[in-house]
Prior knowledge:
Function: Involved in protein export. Acts as a chaperone by maintaining the newly synthesized protein in an open conformation. Functions as a peptidyl-prolyl cis-trans isomerase.
Strand content: 15-25%
Structural class: alpha+beta
Helix content: 40-55%
Organism: Mycoplasmopsis synoviae
Family: Belongs to the FKBP-type PPIase family. Tig subfamily.
GO molecular function, one term: peptidyl-prolyl cis-trans isomerase activity
Largest sheet: 5 strands, antiparallel
Order of helices and strands: EEHHHEEEHEEEEEHHEHHHHHH
Enzyme class: isomerase
Amino acid sequence: MSDFKFTNTETELVVSLFVSKEQVDKEYQKLETEALKKIKVNGYRAGKAPKEALRARLNSKDLLDRVLQNLSKENLNEVYKQLMERKEPVTFAYKIDLKEEENGLTFDYKFAKVPTVSDLDVKSAKTELKLEKVTDKDVLESIETRLNEGRNRVKVEDESKKGDEVLFDFKGYIDGEAFEGGEAEDYSLVLGSAQFIAGFEEQLLGKKAGWKGEIKATFPSTYYVKDYRDKEATFEINLKEVRRVNSLKLDSKEFKDSPLGSEEYLGQYKVFVKKDLVVSRFIQSQRDFLDELVKELSQSVKFHISDLLLKEKIAQLDKQFNDQLKQYKVKRKEYLEVIKATEEDIQVELKTSAVNEYKLSYIYQELLKEFKKEFTEEEKKQYQEVFDALKFTSPSNDLLDQLAVLEGLLEKTSRTKELKAWNDYKVYLVEELKKLDKEIQSMQEKQTQEPAEEKVENKEEK
Length: 462
Protein backbone atom coordinates (compact mmCIF):
# COMPACT_ATOMS: atom_id res chain seq x y z
CA MET A 1 0.00 0.00 0.00
CA SER A 2 1.45 3.34 -1.02
CA ASP A 3 1.28 6.63 0.83
CA PHE A 4 -1.77 8.87 0.89
CA LYS A 5 -1.93 11.64 -1.66
CA PHE A 6 -3.85 14.83 -0.77
CA THR A 7 -5.39 17.03 -3.47
CA ASN A 8 -7.12 20.28 -2.52
CA THR A 9 -9.85 22.00 -4.51
CA GLU A 10 -11.87 25.06 -3.50
CA THR A 11 -14.64 22.99 -1.93
CA GLU A 12 -13.26 19.47 -1.55
CA LEU A 13 -10.26 17.54 -0.30
CA VAL A 14 -9.44 14.35 -2.19
CA VAL A 15 -7.44 11.69 -0.37
CA SER A 16 -6.08 9.16 -2.88
CA LEU A 17 -4.80 5.73 -1.93
CA PHE A 18 -3.32 3.11 -4.27
CA VAL A 19 -4.11 -0.55 -3.56
CA SER A 20 -1.98 -3.06 -5.46
CA LYS A 21 -3.38 -5.91 -7.56
CA GLU A 22 -1.82 -8.37 -5.10
CA GLN A 23 -3.78 -6.87 -2.20
CA VAL A 24 -7.02 -6.98 -4.18
CA ASP A 25 -6.37 -10.63 -5.15
CA LYS A 26 -5.55 -11.53 -1.55
CA GLU A 27 -8.83 -10.08 -0.28
CA TYR A 28 -10.73 -11.73 -3.14
CA GLN A 29 -9.23 -15.16 -2.35
CA LYS A 30 -10.07 -14.74 1.33
CA LEU A 31 -13.73 -13.94 0.65
CA GLU A 32 -13.95 -16.57 -2.09
CA THR A 33 -12.74 -19.30 0.29
CA GLU A 34 -15.35 -18.24 2.87
CA ALA A 35 -18.10 -18.15 0.23
CA LEU A 36 -17.24 -21.54 -1.32
CA LYS A 37 -17.58 -23.23 2.08
CA LYS A 38 -21.26 -22.22 2.20
CA ILE A 39 -22.25 -23.32 -1.34
CA LYS A 40 -24.30 -26.51 -1.60
CA VAL A 41 -24.20 -28.87 -4.59
CA ASN A 42 -26.57 -31.85 -4.82
CA GLY A 43 -24.85 -34.99 -3.63
CA TYR A 44 -22.22 -33.14 -1.60
CA ARG A 45 -22.04 -31.54 1.82
CA ALA A 46 -21.77 -27.72 1.84
CA GLY A 47 -18.42 -26.65 0.40
CA LYS A 48 -17.25 -30.21 -0.39
CA ALA A 49 -18.06 -30.35 -4.10
CA PRO A 50 -15.27 -29.98 -6.71
CA LYS A 51 -13.91 -26.45 -6.91
CA GLU A 52 -15.11 -26.00 -10.50
CA ALA A 53 -18.69 -26.88 -9.50
CA LEU A 54 -18.57 -24.53 -6.51
CA ARG A 55 -17.11 -21.64 -8.52
CA ALA A 56 -19.78 -22.09 -11.19
CA ARG A 57 -22.39 -21.26 -8.54
CA LEU A 58 -20.47 -18.29 -7.15
CA ASN A 59 -21.69 -14.74 -7.85
CA SER A 60 -18.31 -13.26 -8.77
CA LYS A 61 -19.71 -9.73 -9.31
CA ASP A 62 -21.23 -9.67 -5.83
CA LEU A 63 -17.99 -11.04 -4.42
CA LEU A 64 -15.91 -8.34 -6.12
CA ASP A 65 -18.27 -5.66 -4.75
CA ARG A 66 -17.70 -7.02 -1.25
CA VAL A 67 -13.93 -6.99 -1.82
CA LEU A 68 -14.01 -3.33 -2.79
CA GLN A 69 -16.31 -2.49 0.14
CA ASN A 70 -13.98 -4.22 2.59
CA LEU A 71 -10.87 -2.51 1.25
CA SER A 72 -12.66 0.82 1.17
CA LYS A 73 -13.90 0.50 4.76
CA GLU A 74 -10.56 -0.76 6.02
CA ASN A 75 -8.72 2.18 4.42
CA LEU A 76 -11.35 4.74 5.46
CA ASN A 77 -10.39 4.44 9.13
CA GLU A 78 -6.80 5.23 8.20
CA VAL A 79 -7.95 8.15 6.05
CA TYR A 80 -9.83 9.62 9.02
CA LYS A 81 -6.73 9.22 11.15
CA GLN A 82 -4.66 11.10 8.57
CA LEU A 83 -7.24 13.90 8.37
CA MET A 84 -7.24 14.28 12.15
CA GLU A 85 -3.45 14.45 12.29
CA ARG A 86 -3.34 17.06 9.53
CA LYS A 87 -6.27 18.99 11.08
CA GLU A 88 -7.97 19.27 7.71
CA PRO A 89 -11.18 21.42 7.73
CA VAL A 90 -13.50 18.77 6.28
CA THR A 91 -17.03 17.61 7.06
CA PHE A 92 -18.37 14.06 7.28
CA ALA A 93 -19.94 14.34 3.81
CA TYR A 94 -17.89 12.22 1.42
CA LYS A 95 -17.99 9.82 -1.51
CA ILE A 96 -15.54 7.26 -2.86
CA ASP A 97 -14.47 6.98 -6.51
CA LEU A 98 -12.48 4.09 -7.95
CA LYS A 99 -9.93 4.26 -10.75
CA GLU A 100 -8.46 1.17 -12.37
CA GLU A 101 -4.68 1.30 -12.71
CA GLU A 102 -2.29 -1.03 -14.50
CA ASN A 103 -1.15 -2.72 -11.29
CA GLY A 104 -4.13 -2.16 -9.00
CA LEU A 105 -6.80 0.33 -7.96
CA THR A 106 -6.80 3.92 -6.71
CA PHE A 107 -9.41 4.84 -4.10
CA ASP A 108 -10.30 8.55 -4.20
CA TYR A 109 -11.95 9.59 -0.93
CA LYS A 110 -13.63 12.92 -1.69
CA PHE A 111 -14.51 14.96 1.41
CA ALA A 112 -16.57 18.14 1.44
CA LYS A 113 -14.62 20.97 3.02
CA VAL A 114 -16.22 23.19 5.62
CA PRO A 115 -17.95 25.94 3.57
CA THR A 116 -16.10 29.24 3.42
CA VAL A 117 -17.20 32.85 3.10
CA SER A 118 -14.95 35.47 1.51
CA ASP A 119 -15.24 39.19 0.67
CA LEU A 120 -17.26 39.85 3.83
CA ASP A 121 -17.43 43.64 3.76
CA VAL A 122 -19.33 44.56 6.92
CA LYS A 123 -18.09 48.16 7.01
CA SER A 124 -19.87 48.98 3.75
CA ALA A 125 -23.17 47.41 4.87
CA LYS A 126 -26.18 49.74 4.89
CA THR A 127 -28.32 47.85 7.41
CA GLU A 128 -29.13 50.07 10.39
CA LEU A 129 -29.87 49.20 13.99
CA LYS A 130 -33.41 50.39 14.72
CA LEU A 131 -34.31 50.98 18.36
CA GLU A 132 -37.81 52.10 19.25
CA LYS A 133 -39.09 52.92 22.70
CA VAL A 134 -42.60 51.83 23.59
CA THR A 135 -45.07 54.73 23.57
CA ASP A 136 -48.52 55.03 25.13
CA LYS A 137 -49.94 54.92 21.60
CA ASP A 138 -48.16 51.58 21.00
CA VAL A 139 -49.70 50.18 24.17
CA LEU A 140 -53.23 51.27 23.24
CA GLU A 141 -52.89 49.90 19.69
CA SER A 142 -51.59 46.59 21.05
CA ILE A 143 -54.50 46.33 23.48
CA GLU A 144 -57.01 47.03 20.71
CA THR A 145 -55.34 44.43 18.47
CA ARG A 146 -55.55 41.83 21.24
CA LEU A 147 -59.17 42.70 22.02
CA ASN A 148 -60.17 42.37 18.37
CA GLU A 149 -58.54 39.03 17.64
CA GLY A 150 -61.20 36.64 16.35
CA ARG A 151 -63.95 39.28 16.02
CA ASN A 152 -66.22 39.08 12.97
CA ARG A 153 -65.85 41.16 9.84
CA VAL A 154 -68.69 43.26 8.50
CA LYS A 155 -69.29 44.79 5.06
CA VAL A 156 -68.42 48.48 4.82
CA GLU A 157 -69.06 51.10 2.16
CA ASP A 158 -65.84 52.94 3.05
CA GLU A 159 -62.66 52.94 0.99
CA SER A 160 -60.53 49.87 1.61
CA LYS A 161 -57.51 50.09 3.90
CA LYS A 162 -54.75 47.81 5.15
CA GLY A 163 -56.18 44.92 7.17
CA ASP A 164 -59.50 44.89 5.32
CA GLU A 165 -60.67 41.74 3.56
CA VAL A 166 -61.73 42.30 -0.04
CA LEU A 167 -63.81 40.00 -2.24
CA PHE A 168 -63.21 40.36 -5.98
CA ASP A 169 -63.06 38.74 -9.41
CA PHE A 170 -59.91 39.07 -11.49
CA LYS A 171 -58.49 38.02 -14.83
CA GLY A 172 -54.83 38.48 -15.73
CA TYR A 173 -53.14 39.06 -19.08
CA ILE A 174 -49.50 38.91 -20.17
CA ASP A 175 -48.71 40.51 -23.52
CA GLY A 176 -52.45 40.78 -24.15
CA GLU A 177 -53.14 37.07 -23.63
CA ALA A 178 -54.87 35.48 -20.62
CA PHE A 179 -52.45 33.27 -18.72
CA GLU A 180 -53.02 30.01 -16.86
CA GLY A 181 -53.79 30.45 -13.16
CA GLY A 182 -54.46 34.18 -13.62
CA GLU A 183 -58.22 34.11 -13.19
CA ALA A 184 -60.59 33.67 -10.24
CA GLU A 185 -64.05 34.64 -9.01
CA ASP A 186 -65.03 35.67 -5.47
CA TYR A 187 -61.39 35.68 -4.43
CA SER A 188 -60.87 36.67 -0.78
CA LEU A 189 -57.76 38.66 0.16
CA VAL A 190 -56.68 40.46 3.33
CA LEU A 191 -54.90 43.63 2.21
CA GLY A 192 -51.37 43.70 3.56
CA SER A 193 -51.01 39.91 3.74
CA ALA A 194 -48.57 39.89 0.76
CA GLN A 195 -50.30 36.92 -0.88
CA PHE A 196 -50.06 38.45 -4.36
CA ILE A 197 -47.04 39.70 -6.29
CA ALA A 198 -45.57 43.03 -5.18
CA GLY A 199 -47.64 46.04 -6.18
CA PHE A 200 -50.93 44.19 -6.61
CA GLU A 201 -52.46 44.61 -3.16
CA GLU A 202 -51.32 48.23 -2.83
CA GLN A 203 -53.46 49.16 -5.84
CA LEU A 204 -56.57 47.77 -4.13
CA LEU A 205 -56.20 50.22 -1.25
CA GLY A 206 -58.56 53.21 -1.24
CA LYS A 207 -61.17 51.45 -3.38
CA LYS A 208 -64.87 51.01 -2.59
CA ALA A 209 -67.09 48.00 -3.29
CA GLY A 210 -68.30 48.18 -6.88
CA TRP A 211 -65.03 49.53 -8.27
CA LYS A 212 -63.96 48.09 -11.61
CA GLY A 213 -60.64 48.76 -13.23
CA GLU A 214 -57.17 47.52 -14.14
CA ILE A 215 -54.11 46.78 -12.02
CA LYS A 216 -50.62 46.30 -13.39
CA ALA A 217 -47.90 44.38 -11.56
CA THR A 218 -44.65 42.65 -12.52
CA PHE A 219 -43.86 39.06 -11.60
CA PRO A 220 -40.60 38.76 -9.59
CA SER A 221 -37.54 37.10 -11.08
CA THR A 222 -37.91 34.32 -8.49
CA TYR A 223 -41.55 33.52 -9.31
CA TYR A 224 -42.27 29.78 -9.25
CA VAL A 225 -43.70 29.76 -12.79
CA LYS A 226 -40.62 30.19 -14.95
CA ASP A 227 -42.48 31.60 -17.98
CA TYR A 228 -43.94 34.50 -15.96
CA ARG A 229 -40.73 35.76 -14.37
CA ASP A 230 -39.96 39.48 -14.82
CA LYS A 231 -43.07 39.92 -16.98
CA GLU A 232 -45.67 42.64 -16.46
CA ALA A 233 -49.26 41.47 -16.10
CA THR A 234 -52.49 43.44 -16.39
CA PHE A 235 -55.39 42.34 -14.18
CA GLU A 236 -59.03 43.23 -14.78
CA ILE A 237 -60.65 43.71 -11.35
CA ASN A 238 -64.26 43.65 -10.19
CA LEU A 239 -64.25 44.60 -6.49
CA LYS A 240 -67.42 43.16 -4.94
CA GLU A 241 -67.08 43.66 -1.19
CA VAL A 242 -64.92 45.33 1.44
CA ARG A 243 -65.09 43.66 4.84
CA ARG A 244 -63.64 45.16 8.00
CA VAL A 245 -63.19 43.77 11.49
CA ASN A 246 -66.03 44.96 13.69
CA SER A 247 -63.39 46.39 15.97
CA LEU A 248 -63.86 47.22 19.61
CA LYS A 249 -62.43 50.67 20.37
CA LEU A 250 -61.20 51.54 23.84
CA ASP A 251 -63.24 54.74 23.84
CA SER A 252 -66.43 53.00 22.66
CA LYS A 253 -69.49 52.59 24.91
CA GLU A 254 -69.43 48.82 24.26
CA PHE A 255 -65.94 48.51 25.72
CA LYS A 256 -66.54 50.90 28.64
CA ASP A 257 -69.66 48.96 29.62
CA SER A 258 -67.76 45.65 29.59
CA PRO A 259 -65.94 44.20 32.67
CA LEU A 260 -62.66 45.01 30.91
CA GLY A 261 -63.59 48.64 30.43
CA SER A 262 -63.26 49.83 34.02
CA GLU A 263 -60.60 52.47 34.51
CA GLU A 264 -58.88 50.37 37.15
CA TYR A 265 -58.71 47.20 35.06
CA LEU A 266 -57.60 49.02 31.91
CA GLY A 267 -54.88 50.80 33.87
CA GLN A 268 -53.54 47.48 35.14
CA TYR A 269 -53.74 45.88 31.70
CA LYS A 270 -51.76 48.76 30.17
CA VAL A 271 -48.86 48.10 32.56
CA PHE A 272 -48.67 44.39 31.68
CA VAL A 273 -48.97 45.05 27.94
CA LYS A 274 -46.29 47.74 28.05
CA LYS A 275 -43.86 45.42 29.83
CA ASP A 276 -44.53 42.72 27.25
CA LEU A 277 -43.84 45.19 24.41
CA VAL A 278 -40.64 46.52 26.03
CA VAL A 279 -39.23 43.00 26.43
CA SER A 280 -40.21 41.82 22.93
CA ARG A 281 -38.82 44.94 21.23
CA PHE A 282 -35.48 44.57 22.99
CA ILE A 283 -35.10 40.99 21.79
CA GLN A 284 -36.51 41.68 18.32
CA SER A 285 -34.43 44.81 17.65
CA GLN A 286 -31.03 43.13 17.79
CA ARG A 287 -32.34 39.95 16.13
CA ASP A 288 -33.83 41.92 13.21
CA PHE A 289 -30.61 43.89 12.79
CA LEU A 290 -28.45 40.78 12.55
CA ASP A 291 -30.93 38.97 10.27
CA GLU A 292 -31.14 41.92 7.87
CA LEU A 293 -27.36 42.40 7.95
CA VAL A 294 -26.76 38.74 7.10
CA LYS A 295 -29.25 38.96 4.20
CA GLU A 296 -27.57 42.10 2.88
CA LEU A 297 -24.11 40.54 3.09
CA SER A 298 -25.35 37.40 1.32
CA GLN A 299 -25.84 39.49 -1.83
CA SER A 300 -22.14 40.37 -2.13
CA VAL A 301 -20.03 37.67 -0.45
CA LYS A 302 -18.35 34.79 -2.23
CA PHE A 303 -19.53 31.48 -0.83
CA HIS A 304 -17.82 28.17 -1.47
CA ILE A 305 -19.63 24.90 -0.73
CA SER A 306 -19.31 21.34 -2.00
CA ASP A 307 -22.14 19.57 -3.79
CA LEU A 308 -21.46 16.65 -1.45
CA LEU A 309 -22.61 18.77 1.48
CA LEU A 310 -25.62 20.11 -0.42
CA LYS A 311 -26.84 16.63 -1.35
CA GLU A 312 -28.38 15.89 2.07
CA LYS A 313 -29.96 19.35 2.37
CA ILE A 314 -31.47 19.08 -1.13
CA ALA A 315 -32.95 15.69 -0.20
CA GLN A 316 -34.47 17.28 2.93
CA LEU A 317 -36.00 20.14 0.96
CA ASP A 318 -37.26 17.73 -1.69
CA LYS A 319 -39.03 15.69 1.01
CA GLN A 320 -40.61 18.86 2.43
CA PHE A 321 -41.76 19.77 -1.08
CA ASN A 322 -43.37 16.34 -1.58
CA ASP A 323 -45.02 16.50 1.85
CA GLN A 324 -46.57 19.88 0.96
CA LEU A 325 -47.93 18.49 -2.30
CA LYS A 326 -49.43 15.50 -0.44
CA GLN A 327 -51.01 17.87 2.07
CA TYR A 328 -52.88 19.57 -0.78
CA LYS A 329 -53.47 16.23 -2.53
CA VAL A 330 -51.55 17.31 -5.61
CA LYS A 331 -49.37 14.92 -7.60
CA ARG A 332 -45.86 16.06 -8.43
CA LYS A 333 -46.34 15.53 -12.16
CA GLU A 334 -49.58 17.57 -12.15
CA TYR A 335 -47.88 20.39 -10.24
CA LEU A 336 -45.04 20.53 -12.77
CA GLU A 337 -47.56 20.77 -15.60
CA VAL A 338 -49.39 23.66 -13.91
CA ILE A 339 -46.24 25.72 -13.28
CA LYS A 340 -44.76 24.75 -16.67
CA ALA A 341 -41.55 23.42 -15.15
CA THR A 342 -39.43 20.30 -15.50
CA GLU A 343 -37.96 18.09 -12.81
CA GLU A 344 -34.59 19.66 -13.62
CA ASP A 345 -36.06 23.12 -12.90
CA ILE A 346 -37.25 21.92 -9.48
CA GLN A 347 -33.83 20.49 -8.66
CA VAL A 348 -32.20 23.81 -9.59
CA GLU A 349 -34.62 25.65 -7.28
CA LEU A 350 -33.97 23.19 -4.46
CA LYS A 351 -30.22 23.57 -4.87
CA THR A 352 -30.53 27.37 -4.84
CA SER A 353 -32.55 27.19 -1.62
CA ALA A 354 -30.04 24.78 -0.05
CA VAL A 355 -27.10 27.02 -0.94
CA ASN A 356 -28.91 30.06 0.46
CA GLU A 357 -29.69 28.33 3.77
CA TYR A 358 -26.06 27.31 4.21
CA LYS A 359 -24.83 30.72 3.10
CA LEU A 360 -26.89 32.64 5.67
CA SER A 361 -25.80 30.26 8.41
CA TYR A 362 -22.09 30.50 7.58
CA ILE A 363 -22.16 34.29 7.19
CA TYR A 364 -23.49 34.48 10.75
CA GLN A 365 -20.75 32.08 11.88
CA GLU A 366 -18.20 34.41 10.29
CA LEU A 367 -19.70 37.36 12.14
CA LEU A 368 -19.39 35.37 15.35
CA LYS A 369 -15.72 34.64 14.67
CA GLU A 370 -14.83 38.15 13.60
CA PHE A 371 -16.92 40.36 15.87
CA LYS A 372 -18.01 38.45 18.98
CA LYS A 373 -16.57 40.43 21.87
CA GLU A 374 -15.59 39.30 25.32
CA PHE A 375 -17.55 41.41 27.77
CA THR A 376 -15.70 43.13 30.59
CA GLU A 377 -16.83 42.55 34.17
CA GLU A 378 -18.53 45.95 34.13
CA GLU A 379 -20.38 45.08 30.89
CA LYS A 380 -21.40 41.69 32.30
CA LYS A 381 -22.76 43.45 35.36
CA GLN A 382 -24.70 45.86 33.15
CA TYR A 383 -26.22 43.03 31.11
CA GLN A 384 -27.04 41.15 34.29
CA GLU A 385 -29.13 44.16 35.29
CA VAL A 386 -30.87 43.93 31.92
CA PHE A 387 -31.53 40.20 32.34
CA ASP A 388 -32.74 40.68 35.92
CA ALA A 389 -35.13 43.38 34.70
CA LEU A 390 -36.28 41.05 31.92
CA LYS A 391 -36.68 38.24 34.49
CA PHE A 392 -34.30 36.06 32.44
CA THR A 393 -32.86 33.75 35.10
CA SER A 394 -30.75 31.99 32.49
CA PRO A 395 -30.54 33.77 29.10
CA SER A 396 -29.97 31.45 26.15
CA ASN A 397 -26.52 31.13 24.60
CA ASP A 398 -28.01 32.29 21.29
CA LEU A 399 -29.15 35.56 22.87
CA LEU A 400 -25.77 36.08 24.56
CA ASP A 401 -23.97 35.42 21.26
CA GLN A 402 -26.23 37.86 19.40
CA LEU A 403 -25.58 40.59 21.96
CA ALA A 404 -21.82 39.95 21.87
CA VAL A 405 -21.76 40.07 18.05
CA LEU A 406 -23.91 43.19 17.97
CA GLU A 407 -21.71 45.17 20.34
CA GLY A 408 -18.45 43.88 18.85
CA LEU A 409 -19.63 44.74 15.36
CA LEU A 410 -20.73 48.26 16.30
CA GLU A 411 -17.38 48.89 18.00
CA LYS A 412 -15.07 47.40 15.34
CA THR A 413 -16.86 49.05 12.43
CA SER A 414 -16.83 52.44 14.19
CA ARG A 415 -20.60 52.82 14.28
CA THR A 416 -20.29 55.21 17.20
CA LYS A 417 -23.75 56.75 16.82
CA GLU A 418 -25.49 53.37 16.82
CA LEU A 419 -23.30 52.12 19.68
CA LYS A 420 -24.26 55.11 21.83
CA ALA A 421 -27.93 54.59 20.94
CA TRP A 422 -27.63 50.92 21.96
CA ASN A 423 -26.00 51.76 25.30
CA ASP A 424 -28.66 54.41 25.97
CA TYR A 425 -31.33 51.87 25.04
CA LYS A 426 -30.02 49.41 27.65
CA VAL A 427 -30.26 52.12 30.32
CA TYR A 428 -33.80 52.95 29.19
CA LEU A 429 -34.69 49.26 29.24
CA VAL A 430 -33.56 48.71 32.83
CA GLU A 431 -35.18 51.91 34.12
CA GLU A 432 -38.45 51.28 32.28
CA LEU A 433 -38.75 47.67 33.44
CA LYS A 434 -37.95 48.54 37.05
CA LYS A 435 -40.61 51.24 36.95
CA LEU A 436 -43.18 48.84 35.48
CA ASP A 437 -42.30 46.14 38.03
CA LYS A 438 -42.90 48.63 40.85
CA GLU A 439 -46.30 49.47 39.40
CA ILE A 440 -47.16 45.77 39.13
CA GLN A 441 -46.01 45.13 42.69
CA SER A 442 -48.08 48.06 43.93
CA MET A 443 -51.17 46.73 42.13
CA GLN A 444 -50.67 43.25 43.60
CA GLU A 445 -50.27 44.65 47.12
CA LYS A 446 -53.44 46.68 46.68
CA GLN A 447 -55.35 43.60 45.57
CA THR A 448 -54.25 41.62 48.64
CA GLN A 449 -55.13 44.49 50.98
CA GLU A 450 -58.67 44.97 49.67
CA PRO A 451 -60.02 41.52 50.72
CA ALA A 452 -58.51 42.00 54.19
CA GLU A 453 -60.21 45.41 54.54
CA GLU A 454 -63.53 43.90 53.45
CA LYS A 455 -63.27 41.25 56.18
CA VAL A 456 -62.65 43.91 58.83
CA GLU A 457 -65.68 45.90 57.63
CA ASN A 458 -67.87 42.79 57.73
CA LYS A 459 -66.83 42.06 61.33
CA GLU A 460 -67.59 45.63 62.41
CA GLU A 461 -71.05 45.42 60.85
CA LYS A 462 -71.77 42.25 62.78
